[in-house]
Write a structure and sequence with these properties.
InterPro entries: Rhodanese-like_dom (IPR001763), Rhodanese-like_dom_sf (IPR036873), Thiosulfate_sulfurtransferase (IPR051126). The chain has 264 residues and is of the alpha/beta class. The chain has 2 domains: 6-120, 3-Layer(aba) Sandwich (Oxidized Rhodanese, domain 1), CATH 3.40.250; 147-254, Rhodanese-like domain (Oxidized Rhodanese, domain 1). The protein contains 10 helices and 12 strands. It has helices at 9-15, 29-34, 63-72, 90-101, 114-120, 150-158, 169-174, 199-208, 226-236, 248-254, and strands at residues 6-7, 21-25, 42-43, 80-84, 107-110, 147-148, 162-165, 181-182, 189-190, 195-196, 217-220, 242-245. Strand 4 (80-84), helix 4 and strand 5 (107-110) form a beta-alpha-beta unit.
Length: 264
């Protein structure tokens, strides 16, 4: 697993004293304050970096709004960010994708979540002292970004790309992109350990669904939250040709795109 993308609790514990390693807790503020958090973590709740008013593609909040969040959290562009939640990383992965899209070079997902950390390491309710920064975003260009739009998806369908639907089975049966395979994002998570499954096991699970490095992979769900987790995991495993349909099925249906229904 590539540590420049996903880090273990042991890695984070060993780097907590590094002033350039900034930990971001994306849970609701009541959880951050009332339940406790990783020492030194700042709270940037999920809803604060999600916007459904079309300010940017899909539910992205816009580069300036996101930069304002990081500025208030005392984060600089050169910092290493490690994000976590308490839901197997799915909300934190959305933060990772958003930060990458707006040009933050070094942002990583904690392997596991708050509960996984709490099993082995101390937590605190003490809020860190913050010194605001003047964060300047550097959004990726269309050529640099993994995000694709409706027209790109149409082209990928013609190329017979591997479309991966990360939703639950009832959602998949109600409507899906033509030829898509259903791969529930939670397939990569060990529920008992609250961590990702071992790398070799992940490779086997992905291969069972035809998700392999030699294929062009296009990820989608409903509103791009769940595919964020799958995207981060695939990148950490070294998958290079992975596209991220930010508009997902919500946009596809709004444009009257072709769908399949029913069980496979």
């Amino acid at each position: 697993m590539d540590e420049s993308i996903v880090v273990s609790p042991d890695w984070l514990a060993a780097h907590l004293e590094d002033p350039q390693v900034r930990v971001v807790d994306v849970r609701d503020s009541w959880e951050f304050d009332g339940i406790g958090h990783v020492p030194g973590a700042v709270n940037i709740p999920f809803d604060s970096y999600r916007d459904e008013t079309d300010v940017d593609r899909g539910t992205l909040p816009g580069a300036e709004a996101f930069a304002d969040l990081l500025s208030k959290a005392g984060i600089s562009p050169d910092d290493t960010i490690v994000a976590y939640d308490d839901t197997h990383g799915v909300f934190a992965a959305r933060f990772v994708l958003t930060a990458l899209e707006y040009g933050h070079d070094d942002v990583r997902l904690l392997d596991g979540d708050y509960s996984a950390w709490n099993r082995e390491y101390d937590t605190t309710s003490e809020e860190p002292a913050l010194e605001p920064t003047d964060y300047e975003p550097a959004p990726l260009t269309r050529e640099e970004s993994p995000l694709i739009d409706f027209e790109d998806v149409e082209s990928a369908l013609e190329r017979d790309a591997c479309f991966v639907d990360t939703r639950a089975s009832d959602e998949f049966e109600e409507a899906r992109l033509p030829g898509a395979v259903r791969f529930d994002w939670r397939e990569v998570v060990d529920d008992e350990r609250r961590r990702l499954k071992p790398e070799a096991e992940l490779e086997d699970v992905l291969a069972e669904y035809g998700i392999t490095r030699d294929r062009e992979i296009v990820l989608y769900c409903n509103t791009a939250r769940r595919i964020s987790h799958t995207y981060v995991v695939l990148r950490a495993l070294g998958y290079e040709t992975v596209a991220f349909y930010e508009g997902s099925l919500t946009e596809w249906l709004a444009h009257d795109g072709d769908v399949e229904t029913g069980p496979v």
